[in-house]
Amino acid sequence: MTKIFNDPADFAGDMLSGFARAFPGFVQRVPGGVVRATQAAPGKVAVVVGGGSGHYPAFAGWVGPGLADAAVVGYVFSSPSTQQVVAVATAADAGAGVVLSYGNYAGDVLNFEAARAQLTDAGIPVRSVVVSDDLASAPRDERSLRRGTAGDLVVVKIAGAAAEAGYDLEGVVRVAERTNAATVSLGIAFEGPTPPGSRGPLFTVRDGRMGVGLGIHGEPGVSEEPLLGARELAGLLVGRVLAERPDGARRATVLLNGMGATKYEELFVLWNEVVPALEAEGVEIVEPEVGELITSLDMAGLSLTITWLDDELEALWGAPAQSPAYRKGPAEAAPLTPRPVPEIAERAIPEASEASRHVAKLVHAAFETAAAALAEAEPELGELDSVAGNGDHGRVMARGARAAATAAGRAVEAGAGTATTLLFAADAWSDRAGGSSGALWGAGLRAAARVLSDTDPPANAVQAACRSALDAVTAYGNARVGDKTVVDAFLPFTESLEADLAAELPLGPAWVNASAVAARAAEATASLSPRLGRARPLAARSLGHRDPGAVSFAVVVTAIAEHVA
Amino acid sequence: MTKIFNDPADFAGDMLSGFARAFPGFVQRVPGGVVRATQAAPGKVAVVVGGGSGHYPAFAGWVGPGLADAAVVGYVFSSPSTQQVVAVATAADAGAGVVLSYGNYAGDVLNFEAARAQLTDAGIPVRSVVVSDDLASAPRDERSLRRGTAGDLVVVKIAGAAAEAGYDLEGVVRVAERTNAATVSLGIAFEGPTPPGSRGPLFTVRDGRMGVGLGIHGEPGVSEEPLLGARELAGLLVGRVLAERPDGARRATVLLNGMGATKYEELFVLWNEVVPALEAEGVEIVEPEVGELITSLDMAGLSLTITWLDDELEALWGAPAQSPAYRKGPAEAAPLTPRPVPEIAERAIPEASEASRHVAKLVHAAFETAAAALAEAEPELGELDSVAGNGDHGRVMARGARAAATAAGRAVEAGAGTATTLLFAADAWSDRAGGSSGALWGAGLRAAARVLSDTDPPANAVQAACRSALDAVTAYGNARVGDKTVVDAFLPFTESLEADLAAELPLGPAWVNASAVAARAAEATASLSPRLGRARPLAARSLGHRDPGAVSFAVVVTAIAEHVA
């Protein structure tokens, strides 16, 4: 159980400050995460890792020579925001482009991909490598649906070594993708983690049982089996990871990873059984790692990872690396040259018309109302989310809306018009909320702002903004109606609004009608048959429960009806 | 909760094999522990660390260039046996003598000191450095009563660097003792560990509370206080460790250590508060460490350690070191020269008389009976021991007696006389049992053997052997009647036996009488007022409970009455 914190809401930020204070020779803080404290070679490709916090040594513990150049650090078990990724990658870029490497989770994919698009627009060449090593989360022929777990370390190590060796952007991507394809992992869970401020673990496993196929965000195993002794457990793990052995593969590196509360001595007892089990199958083990490599706070469990090596991958795996939590081979006495970090410019506030400034005030008032409504709904939303997620939807939504309201207020104070006020709110929402809902709301609000203006409000502004936001959310989330996402409420809301306005109903009553449609649609998600979306295998579990994203959408649109007319 | 093991009794051995398999570049297994896999410089002082297992990275994780030369590894939370220490130190010695460095716990002190005497007799110069940094376990003016906790790492690091730099035996001891004197620690506990095979944690702390002044073997805190936020907790820890700041001391290294289930992120949150709290008091922090340095299986808790540095200690603290779990500075690409390990000779079996061989058979039968009786009493003894100890007394006694009986049987098979049979049993008992009771029973049986013979049984052999054993146990344990130890039963037993035999009662009835006296004395330990012995502050807690050592003594002497007549 996580016991040490000030305000649980500040946990990730406090953690990151303390981490940077503990390892000043390796890292320095930047907005959104950490970058190396030391200069990399000019023209070196930058490897940027990241994800939610709670997984130390992943990801910030891997920043240093021979490994990553920077880490983006989100809230506990939440994806970092798009802005965080942009800020950290911009600071890490040394002119030769950036590889973003992260695990295959919906929120991470959304935010890192959105950041990739923004960075590319800004002229920085960026490629993504999405790690998908967890064999329990999807069958072998649907590799792209698999989650990322401890395979993250092997991919980052090999990408980092390639970048250090002078590979260009495409070259680093090529070996990193080959590494991911050659890597499979299987995890075992005994008890879930207890995030800061929670009263109990995210899941428990009955005495004498174990969960097989854990996730690293407190997701329980995909099946439950009787607890095994060390020898039999080694047999199960080795058998499952070798089932996907490529033809003729012999040499491999192997990771035996503890999730937090399953300790070193237990890992060594298991390793003592894993080695003969692998050797009996003719596997030659190359520079293995046994220890805590990617954790899930104080979760009890472990995972076994195998990466099949060819000569190139083996040389890169064996190359020296120095970071706070992972060190290999001889360290060069690197001079501690402080690495200069570019400032990130604040968004400017353009001139605005009187009319647009007036609407901006209404927008600010609407965000204040939405923030209050979401704060009230926070416990219910959290409960809904704990069925298939990690229970933080209420907290994330309340935090995002609160940040958006504050940012909108500051913009209005500074004389911003409607579009700019909405942009400030959008940035603040996704940046402070994090996670996948933060990314979706940020993307939706930004898309709405794009069809508005700071001068003359366009005709049909409201329905145009709604449709633009819906399109952005649908595209980002790759979701269709029936997937049990926010789209299940957002699409019927928009259609109702458009129909009423086309029938010349005034905006006020049209909005009220549409809100009622959204609320009914959110209720109906309890009976929807879910479709298995990309990297969302857990969504299938929430059948019979209302989708928290659809419910929170209905909460917002219902609350702000008073400001719309 | 420890979940991964085969037979819990084999946990430490399986763990050590797996550890050696994970780090073949650093360590090789020897009987009793591990020594470096690589050659040290000829004429280098050997630094040997050790203690029970369950504390990884302590102690085996610290074997490598710049740190320790070898580690002695006992059972979980039990001191290694005297024989283990002798075997490992003999393998580690490179001709310039050995420094034994270990924490101040009764069992460790007994076994390492006995080993020191044996090694010195064998011509190896050996010095001990006993680490005593835990400020909660005794007041400042009774420093020698304090337990050893995370200060172990600082002492080993500085001793290892001094040895590597060519200091001689006295020189290494001098800096190691200065380091210990300059080091204080304070620990906080949230929940005890659950050793392999146990059904629950060794202690719990109520919700919203924390134990202050933890031990590393699952001893709870010495006081319980309300749980604090990170900032206030940092204030408490810093205030308490600075209370013993030497006049004028400014520069210090600082360790923030997690005990196992209190994770990295929490430690960084706390570190973020510890740094400003120390800096506000003018402390200059030199190369600190934040992480899991010395754990207690899956115990939840942490400790803060401060070591005040002068120029010499600071240079040694900063020197490079490479080991499985602790790496600092540039690593030399050390050639992997296998280090030859000397064989340890088996004890020879001298010629024996017919009469002595006959008595040896009775001794073997008595050990078999004792082993059976202790196996039956194991649960009760474990329960008694869990009041003030870690609950392993029953297991340790049953294991020791079983090993002694088997060894005695082998000796008898090979034609050994009484004294030699007893010596085999003594060695096997202390070697397989480990811990302080193993050391005491080994020492007592060895002392008994010394007054016996393999040829003619001396007059008054039984009472002479009893008195000799009692003297050895009393001397080793530094215990007096009333301390709630085995002596409380052993002394009245011996006095009763001597008095009856002096009054010419036959041995059979005299032994039965003495056994009854021992059993009553063991019962009476429940009402004894305990004296605070050296490094045994927790004994004070068992007031109102029978001492498990006294009870197990009574079990043995009562059971073997049939073989004595």
From TrEMBL, chains A, B:
Transmembrane segments: none annotated. GO terms for biological process: glycerol catabolic process. InterPro entries: DhaK_dom (IPR004006), DhaL_dom (IPR004007), DhaL_dom_sf (IPR036117), Dihydroxyacetone_Kinase (IPR050861). PROSITE patterns: DHAK (PS51481), DHAL (PS51480). One of its GO terms (molecular function) is ATP binding. Pfam families: Dak1, Dak2. SMART domains: Dak2. Residues 7-326 form the DhaK domain. GO terms for cellular component: cytosol. Keywords: ATP-binding, Kinase, Nucleotide-binding, Transferase. Residues 361-562 form the DhaL domain. This is D-erythrulose kinase. It comes from Prauserella flavalba.
